[in-house]
Amino acid sequence: IDDNCSISPKLGVLDLSQKNYFQFTNGKGETRQICITGAIKKLGGSQVTYFALPANDATGFAGVTGTIDQDNKIISLITVDDLSSVNVDFKLSPHATISPDPSVTKVNLNADTKFTVSAQDGTTSTYTVTKAAPEKISYGYRAGSEKLLWSFDFTTAGFAWGSTNQASLASIGNNLIVNMGNGSTPIYFNRITGAKIGEINLGSASAAGCVTSDLNGNLLICNYVDNGGTFTIYRTKSASAAPTPFISYVNATGYTLGRKVSVQGNIDGDAIISAELESWNGSSSFVRWIVSGGVVGTPEVIAMSGVGNWSAGVNVADIVYATTNPADGYFTSFYDADVLHYMKGTANVASLNPQSDGSGWAYNNNCLDVKAFNGAKYLLLGCVSHFPQWSINTQIYLYDVTSIGQFTGTVDSSPALMFKPAITSFNGTDGVSASGDVLLVPSADGYTLTLYYIDNNCKAMGAYQFDCIKK
Fold it and tell me: Between the CA atoms of 381, 387, 389 and 390, what dihedral angle is there, to the nearest 10 degrees?
């Protein structure tokens, strides 16, 4: 109760099956009667929130995640594989049950199959699982499809919170990989439900740098080396398979390498890999590898002009290419300029200024990703909090950069801005390391785009999802 208020008699052990009456007195001495009682209310949720057929290495089945239309209660499985006898991983509303239970009994999903979900209070919903492809809208994600999948305090998943954390994200299949860059082994999660699965098989690789991923199911893991050391990028297609060396580069740049690495495209085909170079004395350079037909080209050191310098630690730049064609340019941003640049060659050709309310000084605007989805090109910017103790929480901005002509204004009010959710912080004390990452993952079937973020100072990680299903 508020200051200078009281209740009589004093609270003690109550039988909440009964009505318990008290006299409440406010700070002005005014009194009224209140009643404290309890009631058990059963939950009425009867939704399927996740429906997937797991991969089977023995048969070569790659797995498939259902696209759920909650309005029409249709779950679409977009695959040509034989689904005549499959088990299903699924997630329901809390305390709901499903019949038949496809996690216990194998089911035939080659034909339309109905499942009944029963809520705790007895209400039911019937879902039809169909092996078909729903119609898409003509462009980008569907307005109104934005939804929060999950959000939690990452320390509840077993991560330590500390000043040595340099968080990074990657995704392969249905897995989200989180690396803290502090010498610990990366942990992976079900990327749709947020459920922790366990540690990846790191083998002999070092994850002291960061993790990232391409568009063909490759997880890339790198070490962190000073000038004179050997920078190694490892690769694997499975969280349970030990990674193998992919790129080995003797770092003679005069800088430190490995804190932030990005890949655009498919390293088994065409891709661009970029890795920022950092120094406490300042840097505006990065190393680039162009992959053509699965063959890694000669590394190039690219020195940007007209953007200023970043330093080291958490204040480094992220660099991500718009496409696999270097001529299409790239995006970069870093602290403490906090300007989001669109670059071609070595020159800035368009930019977004820091937050319009002048709060850019409180954020580390250096987490980027770019992905194509349903004919659109999206750029994601993550702004990590320096000062969570002042209720300065993570900021996330999603832009449509298909046409760079809309790339003007500020990061929080550009005409290109499509989505800026309010992010929950799980820390109100002083920050220890303003590191983080963001990631965009288009689904293999092309129907969903999932956004991931992690902010070390706010102890926050979460996911939002968008779809392009015509309704």
Answer: -80
- 294-319 in b/e form (b: 16+ CB < 10 A) is eebeebeebebeebeebbbbbbbbbb
Whether pLDDT at 1 is above 90: no
Assign domain 48-130 one CATH number from 3.40.1280.10, 3.30.450.20, 2.60.40.2340, 2.60.40.60. Answer: 2.60.40.2340
Angle at the Cα of 195 from the Cα atoms of 194 and 200, rounded to 5 degrees: 100
- pLDDT confidence of residue 57: 66
DSSP three-state, residue 102: coil
pLDDT digits (tens, 9 = 90+) for 69-95: 999 999 999 988 899 999 899 999 999
For residue 348, the surrounding DSSP H or E stretch is strand 347-352
pLDDT tens track for 338-383: 999 999 999 999 999 999 999 999 999 999 999 999 999 999 999 9
d(CA 323, CA 11): 65
Q: Of 397, 374, 375, 399, give the one whose Cα is nearest residue 384.
A: 397
pLDDT at 177: 98
Q: How far apart are CA 44 and CA 59, in angstroms?
A: 39
List where CATH 2.60.40.2340 sits in the chain.
48-130
What pLDDT, in 10s, does the model give residues 387-433? 999 999 999 999 999 999 999 999 999 999 999 999 999 999 999 99
Angle at 444 between CA 210 and CA 174, to 5 degrees: 55
Measuring CA to CA, how many Å separate 184 from each of 160, 178, 244, 434? 9, 11, 18, 18
- Which residue intervals of the chain bear CATH 2.120.10.30? 147-467
Closest to 238 in 3D by CA, of 296, 171, 185: 171
Say which residues have a Cβ less than 8 Å from residue 165's Cβ, sequence separation at least 6.
159, 180, 181, 182, 432, 433, 435, 456
Task: Determine the pLDDT at residue 63.
Answer: 84
pLDDT in tens, 127-167: 999 998 889 999 999 999 999 999 999 999 999 999 999 99
> Is 456 a residue whose pLDDT tops 80?
yes
Using an 8 Å Cβ cutoff, are 234 and 170 in contact?
no
Fold that domain 147-467 belongs to in CATH: Neuraminidase (2.120.10)
Give kind and range of the element (H or E) at residue 350: strand 347-352
Backbone angle region of 62, left / alpha / beta, with phi > 0 → left and psi within -120 to 50 → alpha:
alpha
Q: How far is CA 147 from CA 225, 465, 467, in A?
A: 39, 5, 10
